[in-house]
Amino acid sequence: MANNEISYDRYRFDVVVIGAGGAGLRAAVEARQAGLRVAIICKSLFGKAHTVMAEGGAAAAMGNVNENDGWKVHFRDTMRGGKFLNNWRMAELHAKESPDRIWELETWGALFDRTKDGRISQRNFGGHEYPRLAHVGDRTGLELIRTMQQKIVAMQQKDAKEHGDAEKYLKVFAELTITEIIKDGNKVAGCYGYWRETGNEVLFEAPAVVLATGGIGKSFKITSNSWEGTGDGHALALKAGSALVDMEFVQFHPTGMVWPPSVRGILVTESVRGDGGVLTNSEGKRFMFNYIPEVFKDKYADNEEEADRWYKDQNNNRRPPELLPRDEVARAINAEVKAGRGSEHGGVYLDVSKRLPADEIKRRLPSMWHQFKELADVDITEQPMEVGPTCHYVMGGVKVDPDTTAAYGVEGLFAAGEVAGGMHGSNRLGGNSLSDLLVFGRRAGAGAADYVKKLGGKTPEASDKAIAKAHDHLNAPFTREGNENPYSLHNELQNVTQDLVGIIRTEKELVDALKKLESIRERAGKVKATGGKAFNPGFHLAIDLENMLLVSESIARSALDRQESRGGHTRDDYPKMDPNWRQVNHLTKWSGKSVEVEAQPAKMLPSELLELFEMDELKKYFTEKELAKGGN
Hints:
The protein is α/β, with parallel strands linked by helices. 36% of the residues lie in helices and 16% in strands. Strands 7-3-2-11-18 form a 5-stranded parallel beta sheet, covered by helices on one side. Helix 3 crosses helix 11 and helix 13 (486-500) runs parallel beside helix 15 (537-561). 55% of the residues are buried.
């Protein structure tokens, strides 16, 4: 088809940010403050980002509640949580810069809960040695998005006053899906997509694109993710020629709702456990004492008396095992249910009513109280909650440069937030996501701005051929032969990932999963969307299905290759963590026809960071040969 026959809206910007959650909005602010013209694209309504589901708080070592906290302690906790597979430079930058990002957010209008002396309050969370999460009740993500939205509006109002047009330098495009990164050679020239309401096509010409698209949860049957979490950014990066790193590591948050069925998977914030909630099985026993891994036994209480004392005296007692990292708690709950000690509806019990008075629960956990009362008719001030693991977060993502967030292999492409890999290693600590968004969202905006300025006006061009290719790809569900139903295939895909690539994995099941995914991919090439593009959810799903298949295959292939258990990847046939595998990151690439995984040596920590840990602890994670060499 000739380009003069293709109808599309055309826009030109310096930087296009795909995603309007915390990372995307922070990137947009930074790029605009650098003097560039910025577009913000959100798949849903502006303000309805998955960031609002991060309820418990943002981790930052400000030391407001315990003065012993600091960036080095936060760094240690993050590396321990990720089982030392983290990109150490990302973990270092995150630990150092998180406090400034939280204080900055406060200057922009964020209303955090306060300590008695007026400082930002911080709460306990799993895997964090000290109270570290700055919070707004259990609605912290919502406050972050509200604050960032207001900052965007304030910047637009300033532009209106100075330039006569509020959207001249910073414009939001809501309910728009991007389906392709347009390149000129190996450089980004823009991106292509469509308005979800009308189906009309859109071309954005821009030398820099920031991916801030969030997660992949809708590839799984039970998930805390909203409908937008279909791995769009992961797939866009793969198809553009970049690579994903460590996609085998998927976090199943230990506490999602399990009943009634209509709300299964909805998140139950870790704040419940941080504020004293305990996990019990059908026999009424606090089972987490039976699941403390060897590497954590010196830091977590092995009896109820010490665990309970910790809430009043943290300096002289070990932490309750309910506050172990999420991967450990999720596996423990899964084991209890499989052993026949689960709750009535296939979960376990989480109870905070015996720890806090009713009015205190409603003050600290207002969303949770309302959520259970309205959706499950459970009053958490009097009754335990039924909870179980839910697909919540993917640690794997686009391989990026830690300092600039520049994506591997494609000039002008950047990534921040959940879509970027490396920061969290094999498992993310609760609370690190919100501060991750702010730290690396800012760095992405700065990196993109610096890249554009260095081009000196010599911007890549979107060719007619590239535009036509993007147009044909977008319209394929209407033009291809076949009669496959996207809803049926999505349901099959979710069953495969949930049953065969879930919390516990085996070689047999992963091989089976890959065969089934290959069959679904083949049939997806025959998915037919009927009717027009306007108001057509079947068309939307046909597009999303391609992304979810790429992501699911990336997870399964990486999981098959990693023959050990670590963090969010548990192999029943390789149940132990192997120090030799700590030296390996998996890179996932797309050949145009298949997903390919290659092993890459993981970078060793530098000496000054290695020295933050006791040698006895390091021996649990590193080989003797690595430790003999010392840090980089």
